[in-house]
């Protein structure tokens, strides 16, 4: 906080004034600063359904729904969002089905809980109907003619009026506790509901348009299993694929009595592990696509006698059947290096339509295309034209408007960010040369002198050039930037060099889609990208993790910076590594497709020391407790420092936390278990383990109290916070089961439990912020039904044990733990703390509010030394009097009106300026901005009055000289007297 | 080494988890054999391990373990301090060991054989919760004080601020009087 309480204030009013002075952290922006330091990108997530808008915007927009509970409309000319609706979090918001035809856009969400009709043009909801929902989570929705929408949930079918949402009828489904109803289908004047009983039968319930059950029949299907996939095609045929014997089972819904089996081999298709079916909706014929591999599909026709192969599509990765004027056409996409080949066939004759053939330039980092959505239209000269959207393996959406060219793409993988690092940009060429001097050791004095001379000359040259440019005109430059902004994102070839204050960085984003991005922090444009179809995150307890290590920063010129992504191989579960230069994106040490290890990774860590080339090695522990070093050249560092390499593994399954030390064994290194802590799995589960940011800068070792004594901080870099959540049964008369959370502060080297506390009747999800000597966490208080924020601060006491280095073996075992708790008036999804270059600036805690804001509160509000009754001494110390509720004021919302949804995490990073911390919030949206927790104390304000200051200075100077002259003359004349 | 061997050191007798102290009864002093082993460990800069049996001891899950550099044991003359952490239901969660120093000294002629072990126990505390009660009390108290202040001050405006009003009136009167006098004098001059 600012200098607060230094002045000798007394009395309540003055004190209150003082508090008010400290609190408003006026983070607010001026209106013309919007978008100057910040950018916001909105995503929808992996798209599951896609339709060309058929209402008045026909062909101008694409309606999409995604697995991240988003319904949106995308402009087809530039890919921007016309509107976006983010539905509820959790299972309540999952989109079960999206239906679009003509003007009608209806979604079924939350396992049949909500039916909503949307206005496709504006994105406003026309009506919403709430239904009981389905226990099995399966629900379906179909449109029957103009006047009826039928919704199926587990135990009933409802008929709704599409105009008002009014419920016309409802009918209970028979045996709904034994049969899992999965599909709803309409054919002619009947609705068919398909239910499955595993290992027994398929139930078919026929309901007419008035909501009367006509018949209930069951067809024997003893082969039904968990892995069986079933679809209903147009024309009313149920088709199931059995992976056990690779056969297709078909049943005609209207009159079929038995399933007909056709094996893939008879059809002449090669069976594989990953067979899936894709329905064909746009034509009346009973057709279905069968996909046997990422690039092999087949179009099947279903007849009364079973399945017929209509067309085998080898090396085709995406296909669609579209009809225009009663003519059905098959669109196919084939990936060849650097391009996509699109061929179109007439479905009746099977001949290729040559005038629609085209090749499209396609970047390999999108993987295989998975789906296309084609819009056919007639041009003015009555020739056929088409535009289509492509969904690819890397979750991207691309649009082809004119033949052969991708008009735009949306990188939806960016809605799945798991790890973030901000990397300093390299210094300019000149400065690089300067540093080159220190990089090489071999030069003699003469060459070194020459080098120095040359660099300084060139520095002078660029300086003069810059000044000349400045003089030549600001306007010209201004014009340039405007032009650049207009021309769009693709052609900013401004090279990546560090700015004066090192504010601009390159942000490395690792996503759950297996894609790694390098993004400019200035504007959010993608600099480079890599896609690894086989890279999967580690997951446990519903938390996905992909690790990103910075092995070498940009500071060690001429050695290039290096980062490594550590994940899991999708197929085998073994370790997967990819190492790259974060600035250029080029792979280093690993092949461009990533390196698959031959062991699983149980724990990772980084070496404590750098090698000769300033590279920090990564330690990987395999299930046999053996240690591997990546890259191999860092093994020599481990040989030297293995005595101080410790690791620990928290096992969720057993509740044990085990600490390991490194021991050499027959030329290898093994991890040896040295400490064990038992967190009683019977009662609770470990949900979080939070360490400190490695290499964190802490400026102050202690805290000055009101009486001028120092309270020394307990700064243990090995401290980790372990959070467990559990349930306990109340012993009192009322009884009942309550949730409880426990916090353990463990020293990860010795296994000593520094502090442990528990919260009864408290529930997660818990976010822990662990920094310096404090821990801040939030939990839901079930008793008071509110969110609370607790803070723990650790102090060694009034004496410091060891002022130079910290050792876990000789540190005080029981530091002073100050703690306090507050009420958080708003719900939050996550939080983080700011970091600055040297840690001098006071800290802020940034909360991602569920309402969409990013709230930045000073850490001083979460200070356990806040006194209930302020005294002279506490005012001297600068603590704010205790108020149980944390204040939320609109100026502390750093993203002003740019609401952010589903924020998964906030990453903060220091900038070159001590006052500034860079913030990236990720989740469904990406939002980047800067914060100055202690305001800009190290930079002059933009509106600083240079003229006035220099005029005053000059004036003073003149006055000084004049008075000097005068006084000299006077002294002289006095001497003459 | 990779296959550590343990010998029985003693038993911890705990009367109540609530108190911080526990009693440690040593079974036997170090035999000379064990002392040699300890010296070897210290020489190799290896670790001295300690484990606490919580169950029957039949599987690894029944132990919690800890360690400290063997040097520390020697240099602090076999006096160590053991911490045992309990959860709220009284189950042992962890153990840790502290010695006065962890520096290495030359322990060749080290001969103390009696342990001097103290045990301390911690139990999971209740986490902090918002202190609304005392805050509300504080507010009430302040309100009362204010109310009290107001009752005391139920005097009339004049009674309250006479000390400000009187001087102002006086000054006004004085200056007004001066004017009148001046006016009178002027009038006199005219006559």
UniProtKB/TrEMBL annotation, chain A:
Its main location: endoplasmic reticulum. InterPro entries: Beta-prop_EMC1_1st, EMC1, EMC1_C, Quinoprotein_ADH-like_sf, WD40/YVTN_repeat-like_dom_sf. The lineage of its organism: Eukaryota, Metazoa, Spiralia, Lophotrochozoa, Mollusca. It comes from Magallana gigas (Pacific oyster). This is ER membrane protein complex subunit 1. Keywords: Endoplasmic reticulum, Glycoprotein, Membrane, Signal, Transmembrane, Transmembrane helix. Residues 771-976 form the ER membrane protein complex subunit 1 C-terminal domain. Residues 471-495 are annotated as: Disordered. GO terms for cellular component: EMC complex. The chain crosses the membrane at residues 944-963. It is a single-pass type I membrane protein. Residues 1-28 form the signal peptide. Belongs to the EMC1 family. Residues 28-412 form the EMC1 first beta-propeller domain. Component of the ER membrane protein complex (EMC). GO terms for biological process: protein folding in endoplasmic reticulum. It is found in: Endoplasmic reticulum membrane.
From TrEMBL, chain B:
The keyword Transmembrane applies. Pfam families: ECM10. CDD domains: EMC10 (cd22209). Keywords: Endoplasmic reticulum, Membrane, Signal, Transmembrane, Transmembrane helix. The keyword GTP-binding does not apply. GO terms for cellular component: EMC complex. The chain crosses the membrane at residues 161-178. It is a single-pass type I membrane protein. Its main location: endoplasmic reticulum. It is found in: Endoplasmic reticulum membrane. Belongs to the EMC10 family. This is ER membrane protein complex subunit 10.
């Amino acid at each position: 906080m600012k200098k607060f309480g230094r002045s000798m204030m007394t009395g309540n009013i003055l004190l209150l004034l003082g508090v008010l002075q400290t609190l408003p952290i006026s983070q607010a922006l001026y209106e013309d600063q919007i978008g100057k330091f910040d950018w916001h990108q909105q995503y929808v997530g992996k798209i599951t359904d896609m339709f060309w808008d058929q209402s008045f915007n026909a062909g101008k927009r694409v309606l999409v729904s995604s697995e991240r509970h988003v319904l949106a409309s995308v402009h087809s000319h530039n890919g921007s969002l016309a509107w976006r609706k983010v539905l509820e979090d959790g299972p309540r918001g999952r989109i079960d089905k999206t239906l679009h035809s003509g003007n009608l856009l209806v979604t079924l969400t939350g396992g049949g809980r909500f039916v909503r009709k949307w206005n496709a043009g504006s994105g406003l909801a026309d009506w919403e109907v709430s239904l009981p929902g389905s226990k099995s989570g399966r629900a379906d929705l179909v449109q029957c003619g103009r006047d009826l929408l039928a919704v199926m949930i587990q135990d009933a079918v409802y008929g709704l009026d599409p105009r008002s949402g009014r419920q016309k009828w409802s009918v209970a489904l028979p045996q709904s506790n034994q049969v899992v109803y999965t599909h709803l289908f309409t054919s002619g004047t009947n609705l068919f509901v398909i239910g499955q009983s595993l290992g027994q039968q398929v139930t078919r319930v026929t309901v007419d348009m008035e909501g009367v059950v006509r018949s209930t029949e069951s067809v024997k299907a003893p082969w039904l299993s968990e892995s069986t996939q079933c679809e209903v095609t147009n024309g009313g045929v149920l088709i199931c694929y059995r992976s056990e014997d690779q056969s297709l089972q078909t049943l005609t819904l209207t009159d079929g009595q038995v399933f007909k089996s056709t094996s893939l081999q008879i059809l002449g298709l090669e069976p594989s592990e990953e067979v899936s079916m894709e329905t064909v909706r746009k034509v009346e014929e009973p057709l279905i696509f069968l996909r046997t591999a990422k690039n092999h599909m087949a179009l099947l026709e279903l007849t009364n006698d079973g399945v017929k192969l209509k067309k085998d599509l080898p090396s085709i990765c995406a296909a669609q059947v579209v009809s225009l004027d009663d003519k059905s056409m098959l669109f196919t996409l084939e990936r060849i290096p650097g391009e996509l080949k699109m061929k179109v066939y007439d479905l009746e004759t099977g001949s290729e339509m040559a005038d629609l053939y085209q090749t499209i330039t396609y970047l390999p980092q999108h993987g295989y295309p998975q789906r296309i959505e084609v819009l056919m239209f007639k041009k003015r000269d009555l020739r056929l034209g088409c535009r289509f959207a492509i969904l690819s393996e890397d979750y991207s959406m691309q649009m082809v408007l004119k033949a052969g060219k991708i008009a735009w793409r949306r990188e939806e993988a960016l809605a799945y960010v798991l790890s973030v690092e901000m990397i300093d940009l390299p210094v300019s060429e000149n400065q690089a040369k300067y540093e080159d001097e220190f990089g090489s050791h071999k030069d003699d004095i003469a060459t070194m002198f020459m080098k120095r001379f040359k660099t300084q000359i060139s520095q002078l040259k660029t300086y003069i050039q810059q000044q000349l440019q400045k003089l030549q005109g600001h306007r010209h430059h201004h014009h340039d930037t405007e032009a650049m902004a207009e021309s769009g994102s693709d052609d900013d070839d401004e090279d990546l060099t560090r700015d004066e204050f090192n504010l601009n960085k390159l942000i490395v984003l690792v996503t759950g889609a297996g894609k790694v991005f390098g993004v400019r922090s200035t504007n959010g444009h993608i600099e480079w990208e890599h896609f690894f179809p086989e890279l999967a995150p580690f997951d446990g307890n519903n938390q996905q993790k992909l690790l990103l290590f910075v092995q070498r920063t940009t500071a060690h010129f001429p050695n290039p910076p290096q980062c490594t992504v550590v994940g899991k191989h999708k197929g085998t579960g073994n370790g997967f590594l990819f190492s790259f230069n974060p600035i250029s994106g080029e792979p280093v040490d690993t092949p461009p497709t990533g390196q698959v290890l031959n062991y699983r990774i149980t724990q990772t860590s980084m070496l404590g020391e750098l090698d000769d080339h300033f590279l920090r090695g990564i330690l990987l522990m395999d299930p046999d407790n053996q240690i591997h070093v990546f890259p191999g050249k860092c093994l020599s560092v481990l040989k030297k420092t293995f005595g101080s390499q410790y690791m620990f593994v928290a096992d969720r399954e057993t509740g044990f936390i085990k600490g390991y030390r490194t021991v050499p064994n027959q030329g290898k290194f093994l991890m040896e278990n040295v400490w064990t802590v038992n967190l009683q799995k019977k009662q609770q589960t470990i949900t979080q383990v939070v360490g400190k940011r490695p290499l964190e800068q802490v400026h102050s070792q202690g805290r000055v109290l009101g009486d001028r004594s120092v309270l020394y901080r307990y700064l243990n870099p090995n401290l980790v916070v372990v959070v467990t959540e559990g349930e306990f049964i109340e012993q009192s008369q009322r009884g009942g089961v309550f949730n409880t959370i426990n916090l353990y502060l463990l020293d990860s080297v010795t296994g000593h439990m520094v502090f442990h506390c528990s919260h009864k009747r408290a529930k997660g999800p818990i976010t822990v912020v662990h920094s310096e000597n404090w821990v801040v966490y939030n939990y839901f208080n079930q008793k008071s039904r509110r969110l609370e924020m607790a803070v723990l601060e650790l102090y060694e006491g009034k004496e410091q044990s060891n002022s130079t280095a910290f050792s876990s073996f000789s540190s005080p075992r029981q530091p002073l733990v100050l703690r306090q708790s507050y009420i958080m008036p708003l719900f939050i999804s996550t939080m983080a703390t700011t970091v600055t270059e040297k840690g001098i600036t006071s800290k802020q805690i940034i909360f991602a509010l569920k309402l969409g804001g990013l709230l930045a509160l000073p850490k001083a509000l979460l200070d356990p030394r806040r006194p209930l009754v302020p005294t002279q001494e506490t005012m001297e110390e600068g603590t704010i009097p205790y108020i149980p509720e944390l204040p939320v004021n609109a100026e502390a919302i750093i993203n002003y009106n740019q609401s952010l949804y589903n924020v998964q995490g906030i990453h903060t990073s220091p900038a070159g300026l001590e006052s500034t911390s860079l913030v990236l919030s990720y989740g469904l949206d990406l939002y980047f901005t800067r914060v100055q927790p202690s305001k800009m104390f190290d930079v002059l304000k933009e509106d600083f009055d240079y003229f006035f200051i220099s005029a005053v200075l000059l004036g003073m100077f003149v006055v000084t000289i004049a008075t000097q002259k005068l006084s000299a003359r006077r002294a002289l004349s006095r001497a003459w007297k | 080494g990779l296959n550590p061997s343990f010998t029985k050191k003693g038993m911890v007798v705990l009367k109540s988890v609530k108190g911080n102290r526990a009693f440690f009864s040593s079974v036997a002093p170090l035999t000379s054999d064990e002392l040699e082993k300890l010296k070897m460990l210290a020489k190799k800069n290896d670790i001295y391990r300690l484990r606490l049996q919580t169950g029957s001891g039949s599987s690894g899950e029944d132990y919690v373990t800890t360690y400290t550099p063997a040097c520390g044991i020697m240099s602090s003359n076999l006096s160590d301090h053991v911490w045992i952490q309990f959860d709220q239901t009284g189950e042992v969660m962890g153990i840790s060991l502290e010695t006065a120093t962890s520096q290495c000294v030359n322990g060749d002629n080290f001969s103390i054989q009696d342990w001097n072990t103290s045990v301390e126990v911690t139990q999971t505390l209740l986490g902090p919760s918002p202190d609304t009660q005392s805050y509300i009390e504080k507010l009430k108290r302040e309100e009362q004080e204010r109310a009290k202040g107001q009752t005391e001050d139920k005097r009339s405006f004049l009674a309250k601020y006479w000390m400000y009003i009187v001087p102002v009136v006086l000054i006004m009167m004085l200056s007004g009087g001066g004017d009148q006098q001046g006016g009178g004098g002027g009038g006199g001059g005219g006559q």
